[in-house]
Design a protein that fits this description.
By secondary structure, this protein is mainly α. The protein is built from 14 helices and 4 strands. The N and C termini lie far apart (64 Å).
């Protein structure tokens, strides 16, 4: 059984960076946060997760074993495992930057659908390429028996999608300025040259998966079936929470048994109330004086005969009257 891992300091720095990014953004992309958390927890294996999660040796992405045994666990779970802390942090920093931009522009549901599709396509293309190289070329045996893990394939696919949405003609790739449409290919070559032990086939498959995803999106004019399924599931899951939220909110917004303060009201509510011009409190229709500030009602059939010296009560006076009323 694989032992628990202890961070050497890079993961806390990653956590601070993620917290800073989410703090300064008005919209907080939940799917990206969930992916970051899932990858990190799978790597650290804290508490009961240590006994629940399979060991790294059981989920290596190996084309030979996946095809031979039909091992779907290796096919999907291998993307969420990482070799070391630096491997994890590098991938998560890339996911943070790409995920936030894509999720905000696409919406959380469509982004989640895209991640699932890119994961399945990138892993599937890796299998197809490895098997083809094994059949037609002698050196293909090495790729067919290669072991790999990590989220890199999905990240390369996300980079292709992100660059297709970009309005910039050029992009930075590790300090180099390259055409945006070739950025993923440039990164593939640079990583292969300067980072030992990476999976060339996995990264290449990610780029091809991104291109295939864009082609399918352009050719299919209707709504993605997977997005439709996820949207319906989300509605089913959210319904109890929305019902409880509406129930408690409708009770909380009523200050007394008869009226509310400010806010938007339906036509049905407004037909039974009138709003005070001084404090915006909504009073029952049959009362002539505001229940909150005692201001005389104005309107058809309820015109007040105010003296010329009448003034809107001050904030301090309003506060005193509320204390007297609600004690």
């Amino acid at each position: 059984m694989e032992s628990r891992r202890i961070s050497r300091g890079m993961i806390p720095l990653l956590g601070l960076h993620v917290a800073n990014e989410y703090y300064r953004r008005e919209r907080k992309p939940p799917v990206t946060a969930g992916l970051l958390l899932a990858n990190t927890l799978i790597y650290l294996r804290p508490g009961v997760l240590h006994d629940i999660l399979p060991a790294l040796d059981e989920v290596w992405f190996n084309p030979h074993l996946i095809i031979k045994n039909g091992d779907l666990r290796r096919f999907f779970l291998s993307a969420f495992y990482h070799m070391g802390e630096s491997h994890l942090v590098y991938n998560m920093m890339s996911l943070l930057w790409k995920g936030i931009q894509l999720e905000i522009s696409m919406g959380s549901l469509e982004f989640a659908t895209m991640v699932i599709e890119l994961l399945a396509m990138s892993q599937g293309i890796t299998l197809l390429l490895a098997r083809s190289l094994y059949i037609f070329f002698d050196y293909g045996r090495a790729y067919y028996n290669e072991y790999s893990v990590g989220f890199s394939g999905v990240l390369f696919a996300m980079k292709v999608v992100l660059n297709s949405h970009s309005s910039d003609d050029y992009a930075y790739v590790h300090g180099l300025i390259v055409p945006a449409r070739h950025a993923a290919w440039a990164e593939l070559i640079l990583i292969q040259l300067f980072v030992p032990g990476v999976s060339f086939l996995g990264h290449l498959s990610g780029i091809l998966a991104g291109i295939l995803y864009l082609q399918l999106k352009r050719s299919y004019l209707g709504q993605d079936p997977l997005t439709t399924i996820l949207r319906r599931l989300a509605r089913v899951v959210r319904w109890p929470f929305r019902f409880l939220g509406d129930l408690f909110w409708s009770r909380r917004r009523r200050i007394s048994g008869r009226g509310t303060v400010g806010g938007n009201h339906s036509r049905r509510d407004m037909s039974a109330t009138w709003r005070c011009t001084a404090c915006t409190y909504d009073n029952t229709w049959w009362s002539n004086d505001c229940e909150m500030c005692r201001t005389r009602r104005e309107g058809e059939g309820f015109r007040s005969n105010r003296p010329s010296s009448w003034q809107v009560p001050s904030m301090e006076e309003m506060r005193r009257r509320r204390i007297e009323r609600f004690g």
